[in-house]
Amino acid sequence: xxxxxxxxxxxxxxxxxxxxxxxxxxxxxxxxxxxxxxxxxxxxxxxxxxxxxxxxxxxxxxxxxxxxxxxxxxxxxxxxxxxxxxxxxxxxxxxxxxxxxxxxxxxxxxxxxxxxxxxxxxxxxxxxxxxxxxxxxxxxxxxxxxxxxxxxxxxxxxxxxxxxxxxxxxxxxxxxxxxxxxxxxxxxxxxxxxxxxxxxxxxxxxxx
Length: 208
Ligand SMILES: N[C@@H](CCC(=O)N[C@@H](CS)C(=O)NCC(=O)O)C(=O)O
Description:
Bound molecules: glutathione
Distance between the termini: 31 Å
Number of strands: 4
C-alpha cells in the first residue's frame, strides 16, 4: 500500500487548507499541481470527476473531493493531532456546523465571485451584477461567523475550521483594509494563525 497522501490542486485554490492540515499532521504527502489547460483538467477528471481543486488521494489510493469533507476526515483519522473535537461531542457538533456553513455559504459565494459568468444562461453578459451580489453575500456570511469568533471558530480551542475560514477570507477580492475593519475579530484570527509553520509553508508553496 502507498503510505502517503497525494494532494491535487493549484495555487490559490481550496487545496490550501488541505495542505495546511497535512502539514499539521506531519504525515507524508505529495503535492501535485494540476495544470489549468482543458486537456489536463479532462485527465484530472479521470481521478476526480468534479475536475475541481482540491482532491486528496488517501493512503489506500481512494480519491476524496469536497474540501470540508476532506478536512473533517483528516481530523477524524488523526485524533491525537486535535484538529477537531472528539466526534460525538457537542463541541464536534459545533465544528461540523461551521465546516458545512463555511463550505455551503462562504465557499459557494466565492465561486460565484470568481466564476460569475457560469451563473447565468447569458454568460459573461450578467457576470458583473452576479459578482457584485456574490461579494455582498460573501461579506454577510462572514459577518455571521464574526459574531461567534472568540477568538477561534470554536471559542478558546483552535481547530481546522479556523484554517478553512482563514483560507476563505483570503479570497476576498476587494479592499483588504476595509474588509478587515468591517470584520475585526476575523482580522485578529488571521493575525493569530498567520505565524503557524503549517500556514507559512503552505503560503510559500502557493506563492511560488
Ligand atoms: N465544493 C468544492 C468546491 C471546489 C472548487 O470549486 N474549487 C475551485 C478552486 S478554489 C475550482 O476547482 N475551480 C475550477 C473550476 O470550477 O473550473 C469544495 O469545497 O472542494
